[in-house]
């Protein structure tokens, strides 16, 4: 090689290749770091969301529990109004707008934000974080009295009207209510009665231990605590479970599709006597055959001139004896017989509180018993899946 023609080592071709490799490696490192940073940021967002959800979960829980306490206070104070010795659909607990005293007028159970007037919002302390929480939160409190339904244990024990006390079951099973075929009436009726009575002797079409042991359980032989127990009973188990669950099979013929379900008509928890101020027509006609023609007259009388329940012109019955009014049609003797399973008061209420915080929703159901205006007990409660 001639002098002057020799190039510096850095100018050799293979060195340029090394530079290209190094550049690619730097790009790869940057890509890896960017990926790690993105993953870290994503994890941080997830952690922040989980922390926020955990915080909201606590808030939702206590909003729901506070809603139950508010319902207890509301139904208790309602009983303290001397001018209203009855429980009716135009009262504050049922309508959120019924005529009532000054104390209850300040309570709001509607589905509104806490900052918009719900009584729970009165707990605010002026703190900016708390006010922000109020603006992001909503609470709805629904209260339904259970004396509007027939107590299924009373029916099974024969405490209601004619036909040996089973008339409510038989009337409900007709094609315009539960749509149970005639051939299955007695099976379901006798099986429910056998499930409740304390003896082990099966009725003609009923079932006791021998029948149920093949399924791994025995007849209860005591009062029903929850209507879900009916899913275990002969005639309903594996045959007509939709009467309890409300989930009608798509293949079920139209003539066998019920208009109502057992949960619409019966309850296992109540004082037993049906409140004629709150019971719907479909429950009234179950009480006794005499109500078939009088149910509409009872509803017209209590709804007042506008014919709409839950308004200020409602005229609730103040005593059962008012059924003797000629416009309703019961004789004094008939009213006397009905007194044992009718009332104008409700003492058992189902409360459903639905709380929302930042689009998270939680629902709590509680059954409460009002013994007096100062004594309202929680019998039991459970969390309800949203969407149920």
Explain this structure to me?
This protein has 388 residues and is an alpha/beta fold. The chain folds into 2 domains: 60-148 and 347-384, GSPII I/J protein-like (Pantoate--beta-alanine Ligase, Chain: A,domain 2), CATH 3.30.1300; 150-341, Ribonucleotide Reductase Protein R1, domain 1. Helices cover 38% and strands 13% of the residues. The chain is built from 13 helices and 9 strands. It has helices spanning 13-79, 92-95, 102-105, 128-135, 152-156, 167-172, 182-196, 209-213, 242-245, 262-265, 281-287, 291-303, 332-338, and strands at residues 112-113, 137-145, 150-151, 266-267, 274-275, 342-343, 348-357, 360-372, 375-384. The strands form 3 sheets. The protein has a 5-stranded antiparallel sheet with strand order 1-2-7-8-9. It has a two-stranded parallel sheet with strand order 3-4. Strand 8 and strand 9 (375-384) form a beta hairpin. Helix 11 packs across helix 12. 34% of the residues are buried.
